[in-house]
Amino acid sequence: MNSQIIDALPQALLSELGEDVLQSLCTDVDAFGKFSEQWAILTKNALVMLDADGREQHRIALSVIISADAQMYIGAGRLSVKTTDGPVVLAHYSPRLVQKVSAFKNAINAVAKGEQLPHLSEKDLPRTCPTCGRPLDVGTNVCPLCVDKGKVVVRLIRYAKPFRNLMILSILLLLAVTGISLVPPYLTKVIVDKVITPHNFGSMLLILVLSLLLANLLQAVLQAVRGYLGVWLGSRMMGNIRRDIYDALMKLSLSYFDKRQTSQFIGRVNNDAQQMQQFLTDGLIMMTSQVTSLVAIIVMMLRLNWFLAVLAFITTPLILITSISLWPFVRLRWYRLWRTRVRLNVLVGDSLNGIRVVKAFGQEQMEEDRYQEANLRMVDLSTRMDGLWQGVFPLFNFISSFGTVLVWFFGGREVLHGSITLGTLMAFITYLNMFFGPLQWFSQLINWVTNALASAERVFEIIDTIPDVREAADAVPMPLIEGRVEIEGLSFGYERHHPVLKNINLQVEPGEMIGLVGHSGAGKSTFINLLCRFYDPNEGSILLDGTDLRDIRQEDLHSQIGVVLQETFLFDGTVKENIAYAKPDASQYEIMRAAKIANAHSFIMRLTDGYDTRVGERGHRLSGGEKQRIAIARAVLHDPRILILDEATASLDTETERQIQEALARLVKGRTTFAIAHRLSTLRNANRLVVFERGEIVEAGTHEELLSTEGVYYGLVKAQTELSQIRGVGE
Ligand code: ADP
User: Fold this and answer.
1) Rounded distance, CA 305 to CA 480, Å?
2) 507 strand-pairing partners
3) pTM of the model
4) Which residue's CA is the nearest one to ligand 1's atom 14?
5) Which of 31, 263, 383, 596 lies in disulfide reach of 601, CB 3.0 to 4.6 Å?
6) Ligand 1: centre distance to CA 493 (Å)
7) What is the 47 CA–ligand 1 centroid distance (Å)?
8) How many angstroms separate the CA atoms of 117 and 109, rounded?
9) Substitution site in 261, 500, 501, 527 for ligand 1 pocket (most atoms within 8 Å of beta carbon)
10) Backbone angles phi, psi at 2, to 5 degrees
11) What distance in angstroms lies between residue 526's CA and the mean position of ligand 1's atoms?
12) Ligand 1 atom closest to Cα of 529?
């Protein structure tokens, strides 16, 4: 693929257009969220929108385009352009096209400004499987159709290793069950041939019937033991797999999650682990037993009568051929089903995460429709997939009944001619029926093995991802730091080619309080993210007491940096547990002391269960001001040397505001503090203010110094003062 073209136009459209095409993009959903293809084409003179059949829907001359914008909403995005005549919505797209649309938007913006088309590298475009060319799903490099099965199996089997002895026991039990299951048909033969004869008085009958009962009982007991063992093994292996996935997720850097929808991981932790476990317990063990049972049955049948055995197996190749030829259909359907399932999970996750937005904009119906569409697709696909088996099984049964009919016919004739006994025929027919069990099991084998291996590969992918931010091999232990921060030539971008912070230099003495101010989007939070080492700088460095953050042991770093964030996240648990989050072994006394310093004690005491009151998921039962004070108490207890404050934007009533300010003033004392304040008045205590503008530090100094220079800070203060006057809140 030419790296300059996002989606190459089909030749027919290209010739019809007859213009110099600079860039083209194929979008996938319409304005109502339904799947439908549309082409957006950027030519030297215009932006042209075509429907899938090449009919022109829109044409906007480049000369009227001011800028292009791509916005992601819940579950779908919108590409639009601002023109001199107003905004125009060009197309909608699903999340998987985010990168492509963003590249297309950049192309429009560049061309509209008369610049060169931006160069596109492979990294800018969504990835496809290098083997089969199908698009790879968001968040994974695994193409379920092309995984290296052998490698995955070997690695998967490692999970069974700690349970080797029990696995072997399980296999032995199954073999015993299989062995015992071969006995009853033989006993039947003896009963029919030797006992139920005209001149026999049946003295043996009781013994044989009792043996039959005993064989069945033994089989049932062994099966129950084996079943329990299987469940025991399965739960433990699955527990280990889930633990590994979760540990791996926790270790990954924030940048990993920035690019992915987090909802998909819920499915991975649970479903994929289950698939892997099934492979290990049912798969491996059943495989051994099914193979032995198949071989044993064949041997028994051949021993009873080789001619009938050959007749019975005549149809087997037909069954095998049918399943192999069905395989490509099954594979594709199964793949589609899997993708739809992921999409369903993501849809639920996204809309629940954004439920406030959904409700606030009254978009419940739209979300329901979008979900319903994916849901119906899932219904359709699973009906077709499962329906396929429902059709195939009766077919297999029919084919196998052919063998049975042949055996009845020729076997029956032999019984009539007296060349075999009736008992032999009956035993033979019973074995024959047993033979089809494992056979059907094998015909479905490829299906679920592929399933399980793809799951395993996706899980290993997470486990193998090396976090961007990782501990240096020779990381320096720094259990006690003073709190001097030196930032030298720091540059950083979430996307490398799009810097968000540019050449930042700053020296901060221990115990100093730095206020970070600037317009929204200026890079303040990004700066904080780097200080916490959520990301590593692209250029330059951050030194803490003279040591680069990247060289400090992460544990030491995080134990000495405390954050009070704008949106306090409270975990599902009690108030006490939430305060003691960073120090779970804190005593009740320490927790209360922290709460008192944070001015939180009195409101906590008013809660129904005091410190033991449960706060719901995300702490819904507490007000914004209360949550903030819990966060302050958390930080007090954590007692970090470096403190990061991201002040809440929401206005609080004067009394709460006063209490929080008071608590913060106590908290920051003696600690190096970086505070982002949205209300500038709250930065009164700061030693210095640093003003960010488009990723650069443009001013630094005290409140008075900055006011006197009448620069960016002056503008911000003025705007806020005017705003508060309009609101009549007067600061
Ligand atoms: P501020 O805190 O000053 O409002 P931010 O640091 O949040 O600014 O954002 C600076 C720029 O970085 C913005 O253009 C924003 O869109 C971008 N940005 C922030 N977070 C991310 C992210 N996780 N991935 C990509 N871009 C981001």
Assistant:
1) 84
2) 486
3) 0.68
4) 521
5) 596
6) 9
7) 29
8) 9
9) 500
10) -65, 125
11) 6
12) 6
What is the CA(525)–ligand 1 centre distance, in A?
A: 7
The tokens of 89 are what?
A: 């919505």
700-723 residues labelled b (16+ CB within 10 A) or e (exposed) = ebebeebeeeeebbeebbeeeeee
> How far from chain centre, in Å, is Cα 580?
29
The ligand 1 atom nearest the CA atom of 501: 10
CA of 523 to the centre of ligand 1 (A): 6
Which atom in ligand 1 lies closest to the alpha carbon of residue 520?
4
Which protein residue's CA is at the shortest distance from atom 27 of ligand 1? 494
Helix/strand/coil (H/E/C) assignment for every residue in 492-534 = ECCECCECCEEEEEEEECCCCEEEEEECCCCCHHHHHHHHCCC
pLDDT (tens digit per residue) in 59-107: 898 889 998 988 877 667 888 899 988 888 888 887 667 778 888 888 8
**What separation in Å is there between the alpha carbon of 561 and the centre of ligand 1?**
21
User: Do 399 and 105 form a contact (C-beta atoms < 8 A)?
Assistant: no
Binding-site residues, ligand 1, Cβ < 6 A: 258, 494, 500, 518, 520-526
Collect all residues with Cβ–Cβ distance below 8 Å to 250 and sequence separation of at least 6: none
Q: Beta strand 501-508 with 485-492: parallel, antiparallel or unpaired?
A: antiparallel
What tens digit of pLDDT does each residue of 226-280 get?
989 988 988 898 899 889 888 888 888 887 777 676 767 777 777 888 888 888 8
Distance CA(322)–CA(396), nearest Å, equals: 9
Nearest-atom number in ligand 1 for the CA of 676 is: 2
How far is it, in rounded angstroms, from Cα 414 to Cα 723? 104
Apex 543 CA angle, 479 and 508, nearest 5: 100
Pocket test for ligand 1, best of 257, 495, 525, 716 (most atoms within 8 A of CB): 525
Q: Measuring CA to CA, which residue among 245, 273, 274, 265 is closest to residue 353?
A: 265
pLDDT tens digit sequence for 372-411: 888 888 898 888 888 887 888 788 888 888 888 999 999 9
Q: Name the residue with the closest Cα to ligand 1, atom 23.
A: 258
Phi, psi of 108 (to 5 degrees): -60, -45
Residue 91 DSSP SS3 = strand
Please tell me the distance from the alpha carbon of residue 563 to that of residue 528, in angstroms, as a whole number: 10
Least confident stretch, 53-57, 176-180, 242-246, 506-510: 53-57
Joined tokens for residue 725? 């006057």
